[in-house]
Design goal:
alpha/beta; Globin-like; Elongation Factor Tu (Ef-tu), domain 3; Rossmann fold; 3 domains; four-stranded antiparallel beta sheet; 43% helix; 17% strand; transport; oxygen transport; oxidoreductase; EC 1.14.12.17
């Protein structure tokens, strides 16, 4: 990364740094315009980019923050390396290739020019063209290594591979699990608890395929991949989820589903032996279940506190399995929080998780904390842990979009 930075002359770096305030103000407008221009000229790329996130603006915001961070750290790109690796895992899962980068660069520069108008001088555009080339090379290099590592694993593959649905299990009113095994019957790699796969939904009547990422919800080494998918129903102006509806309604035992190899850096650290706190909200349960199933196999003596929040019992997936684990292992404690319990449903807390309640149930703040769920849940979880004086190094989460959505 340092070598790449040296490739930018001082004048170029100074121009990039001078554009930081402009990017802070107009970044999202620029990235929205970029996506609009790119999809108009390359509609085939809609196969890769989540169009729901496009409509919500999440993708534009995430890209704007990445561009802003690169500009702000142009003298020290090593500072953004963790974020680059996180994004590269997403890219690997989506099978982003080197040939995609020039296309993105072309329309990103056009977006800057369109939004800034005359303020985007030739010097500014030329500087950003150089900077984009350097940053793109960093991504391409990291992703090349990731693809190579994935391909060289026993049973590993690049691009998409057909898996067969061997079992379909309804877990709650809105969550269904799909058990997947390779359609070719050949070996397939293990993964780390917390990782995800990308599924390619080939839906009749749709103009393009749809890619979605789902956490693997069972422990590695069980001879199967399992994804547990929440059906996103239409609410107000938001339409029903195209892919989740397809999976729930059309995918049956025996169906074929193309998926990418497991990816992601939000993984359970099995070198840590301190107490483990797993917190989830709604379908954020899926990577937490994988971590729970893993820790009882790999660290059966480790203290585990498993906390799950759901609207009510009807929306609580895998409850019986967690209870079974908690009953079997004295070192595992399970807590359930229901927002609106129904018909005298039993739970440990009604409403929401708060810092005061956490202090009454947690043995220490010197522990490893992992959490996943909707953004609102994750924001509250982060703030509650900070009130509990948990070190940032012990707080683990993964989110699509800028971390500031959670930590601000």
């Amino acid at each position: 990364m340092t070598t790449a930075t040296i490739g930018l002359d001082k004048q170029t770096r100074d121009i990039i740094k001078a554009t930081v305030p402009v990017l802070q103000e107009h970044g999202e407008k620029i990235t929205k315009r970029f996506y609009q221009l790119m999809f108009e000229n390359h509609p085939e790329l809609k196969n890769i980019f989540n169009q729901t996130n496009q409509r919500k603006g999440d993708q534009s915001k995430a890209l704007a923050n990445t561009v802003y961070a690169a500009a702000a750290n142009i003298d020290n790109l090593e500072a953004i390396l963790p974020n680059v690796k996180l994004i590269s895992h997403k890219h690997k899962s989506l099978n982003i290739k080197p040939e995609h980068y020039p296309i993105v660069g072309k329309y990103l520069l056009m977006g800057i020019k369109d939004v800034l108008g005359d303020a985007a001088t030739d010097d500014i555009i030329n500087a950003w063209e150089k900077a984009y080339g350097v940053i793109a090379d960093v991504f391409i290099s990291i992703e090349k290594d990731m693809y190579m590592e994935t391909k060289n694993k026993p049973g590993g593959w690049v691009d998409f591979r057909n898996f067969k649905v061997t079992k379909k299990v309804v877990e709650s009113d809105v969550i269904t699990s799909f058990y997947l095994e390779p359609a070719d019957g050949n070996p397939f790699p293990a993964y780390q608890a917390g990782q995800y796969v990308t599924v390619k939904a080939e839906i009749d009547g749709e103009s393009h395929d749809h890619l979605r990422q789902y956490s693997l919800s069972c422990a590695p080494g069980e001879g199967v991949y399992r994804i547990s998918v929440k059906r996103e129903d239409a609410i107000g102006d938001n339409p029903a989820g195209v892919v989740s509806s397809f999976l729930h309604e059309k995918l049956e035992e025996g169906s074929i589903l193309p998926i990418s190899a497991p990816a992601g850096e939000f993984v359970l650290d099995l070198e840590d032996t301190r107490p483990l706190v797993l917190m989830s909200g709604g379908v954020g349960l899926t990577p937490m279940i994988s971590m729970l199933e893993t820790v009882i196999k790999e660290q059966p003596e480790r203290e585990v506190i498993f906390i799950h929040a759901a609207r009510s019992g009807r929306f609580h997936a895998m409850k019986d399995r967690v209870l079974e684990i908690a009953d079997k292992y004295d070192n595992v404690t399970n807590y359930t929080i229901y927002d609106h319990p129904e018909d005298d449903e039993q739970c440990d807390k009604t409403g929401y998780i708060d810092a005061e309640w956490l202090e009454t149930i947690l043995p220490t703040n010197d522990a490893a904390f992992y959490f996943c769920g909707p953004k609102g849940f994750m924001r509250a979880a982060y703030q509650n842990l900070k009130k509990y004086h948990v070190s940032d190094a012990d707080i683990h989460f993964e989110i699509f979009g800028p971390a500031e959505d959670i930590t601000a």
